Amino acid sequence: MNLQGISLETGDGIRLQYNQTGPKNGQQLLFITGWRQAAAEWRKQVDYFSSAGFCVTTFDMRGHGDSEEPEFGYRISRLAADLNDVLEQLDLKKVSIIGHSMGCSVAWAWWDQYPETRKRVAKLVLVDQPAITVRDLKWTDEQAAQVSAIFTPNAIFELADDIAAQLAPLVKSMFTAAVSDSDLEWVLAQNRKMSDAHSGTLLIDHALADWRDVLPRITVPTLVLAGEVSVFPPAGVAWIATQIPGAKSYTFTAAEKGSHFSFWENPERFNSVVKHFLIG
Questions:
Q1: How many Cα neighbours within 13 Å face the side chain of 274?
Q2: pLDDT tens, 6-17?
Q3: Where is the AB hydrolase-1 domain (predicted)?
């Protein structure tokens, strides 16, 4: 099965582009991208897991990639509602969700808001996203480091306000120096499918959220993945696994190209770690 260029309609009437690849009766996987990223960026995982017998679903969130870009809805709570629409309309069952960066926040918001749909999900893989990214101004540096809260409130608003100029250096900082110019330009092209205005609005909403109280209420097997050379210090990402009952964690080393985009820079190792968790 390889269905390309198909879409579904959310509860508020927005068309989301999605793809399903691999045998229809295979173990279900659903990949969620990060802020401003397109589903096409999971292509190294789609190829690997669909060839390994998994049924792989990817989708572009509203305003992202090839999905419709309305003038409203750029908040995590709305993206969680869209995710719920994806799960229900595609009738995904016993699905493992793999979320990257902001995709983790979308998954956390969905878990928090839609308890009646949780029965559809078998496992979670959370890739390189702190539970809170903006530090409380009363915190010490040590307190902020414990949870990898790397931004101040002012820094987030300034970044969102200047996102047109800051996008390229921001995205580049998420990779190791080994990333090729062609790969970086391709990823930037996917990012630029979303408008600066909408991405700025979403960035503020995403960055100011705090998901720490959701973590202890997650009841499915969970794997937390961090990167030794990621923009998010790995200790604060791995800390999430200590808050989710029974969760496991793995940190990709510098030698393993453990950047924020480890799944792109070292797909062989990334796919191996995720597959071991999924079938274990």
A1: 30
A2: 999 999 999 999
A3: 29-267
Question: Can you give the length of the chain in residues?
Answer: 280
Nearest residue to 241 via CA among 102, 149, 112, 130: 130
Amino acid making up residue 216: P
Q: Which residue type does 113 have?
A: Q
Domains of the chain, earliest start first: 2-279 (3.40.50.1820)
Please count the other Cβ atoms lying within 10 Å of the Cβ belonging to residue 220.
Answer: 17
Q: Which backbone phi and psi does 87 adopt, to 5 degrees? A: -60, -45
Q: What is the pLDDT of residues 147-192, one digit of tens each?
A: 999 999 999 999 999 999 999 999 999 999 999 999 999 999 999 9
* Residues forming beta bridges with residue 124, ordered by sequence position: 97, 222
What's the predicted TM-score (pTM) here?
A: 0.97
Rounded Cα distance, 274 and 175, in Å: 20
Q: Say how far apart CA 198 and CA 95 lie, in whole Å.
A: 30
Q: Give me the amino acid identity at 261.
A: F
- Residue 90 has φ and ψ, to the nearest 5°, of -90, 0
Tell me the H-state helices in 6-140: 43-51, 76-89, 102-113
Residue tagged 């597959």 (tokens): 275
81: nearest Cα among 173, 129, 174, 14: 14
Separation of alpha carbons 80 and 17, rounded Å: 16
d(CA 24, CA 56): 9
